[in-house]
Structure formats: C-alpha cells, structure tokens
Amino acid sequence: MGKSEETWEIIAASFTKKKDVLLTKMMGHPSLKTNGKLCCCFFDGDMVFKLSGEEHARALALKGSKLFDPGSMGRPMKEWVQVKPAHEKLWPQFTEAALDYVKSSPAKTKPAAAKAKKKK
Fold first, then answer.
1. What is the pLDDT of residues 24-80, one digit of tens each?
2. Which of 2, 58, 64, 112 could form a disulfide with 84 if both were Cys (CB 3.0 to 4.6 A apart)?
3. How far apart are CA 81 and CA 97, in angstroms?
4. Are the C-beta atoms of residues 49 and 98 closer than 8 Å to each other?
5. What is the β-pairing status of strands 46-50 and 37-43?
6. What is the DSSP string of 37-60?
7. CA–CA separation, 110 vs 19, rounded Å?
8. Range list of β-strands (E), 1-120
9. pTM value?
10. 73: DSSP letter
11. What's the DSSP call for residue 90?
12. End-to-end distance of the chain based on CA atoms, in angstroms?
C-alpha cells in the first residue's frame, strides 16, 4: 500500500464515522457518499473531489490537478477535480468542502418509476 492509499484510508475512516457519510464505489473505485450523492473518490493514486466556487478553483490551481476525465476520452466532469498525492495534506480539507457542497444540493431521490415498481 502506497502513502497516498494510506492517506485515503485515513480520510475514509475519519469521515465515515459521521453518520451521514458512507463508503461506497464510483466506477469501481472507493468513494464517499452523503445525501445520496458521491462527493469524492480515490482514483489511480489521486483523490477526486466534487467541488464548486472558490474550493473548485483552488483545487484546480494546484500543480498537476485537472478536471476529472475517468475514461480519458476528452469528456471531463466539470465539477470534479483530480488532485495529485503531492497535495495530499489538502485532501481532508477538500473532502470536507466536497461533503458540504453535496449536502447543500437537494437529496438524490429515486425516479418515480422505481418508486412505483417498489410498491408492487
């Protein structure tokens, strides 16, 4: 296990102690979720955060950071910033900012068709 993976493990353990934060997967990669939505993940040794505003700009300005393009197909996800391990001391701050951002948006709900199907 590399240092960046150890840092991810510490962050995941710390944040999942909060009752509203779950450890899950995003595209097969370990991730954190709150309010029914993903907020960050550990991807190929980097951390990826869903951010907005000043935090988004701050993360994107770090050397080596970029918009997250999981398939490397030239279709980056505009709110998601991939941050290199060189900046792992900032990962907990960005995790907190990502959680706050996701919590501030409406909770994810199941589509009406899924709700109707479940009632049967």
1. 888 778 999 998 899 999 999 999 999 999 999 999 999 999 999 887 788 888 999
2. 64
3. 12
4. yes
5. antiparallel
6. EEEEEEETTEEEEE--HHHHHHHH
7. 21
8. 21-26, 29-34, 37-43, 46-50, 66-68, 77-83
9. 0.84
10. S
11. G
12. 46
Q: Are strands 46-50 and 66-68 parallel, antiparallel or unpaired?
A: unpaired
Over the stretch 96-116, which tens digit does the pLDDT of each residue have?
A: 999 999 988 776 666 555 555
Domain-wise residue ranges, the chain: 3-119
* Polymer length of the chain: 120
Give 118's pLDDT tier (boundaries 50, 70, 90): low
Return the structure tokens found at 70.
């999981």
The alpha carbon torsion through 57, 105, 36, 59 (nearest 10 deg) reads 10
Nearest to residue 95, comparing CAs of 1, 21, 28? 21
Look up residue 52 and give its two tokens.
Answer: 């907005």
Asked if 38 and 50 count as a contact pair (C-beta separation under 8 A), the reply is: yes
For the chain, the C-alpha Rg in angstroms (whole number) is 15
**Architecture of the domain whose range is 3-119:** Alpha-Beta Complex (3.90)
The secondary element (H helix, E strand) that includes residue 31 is strand 29-34
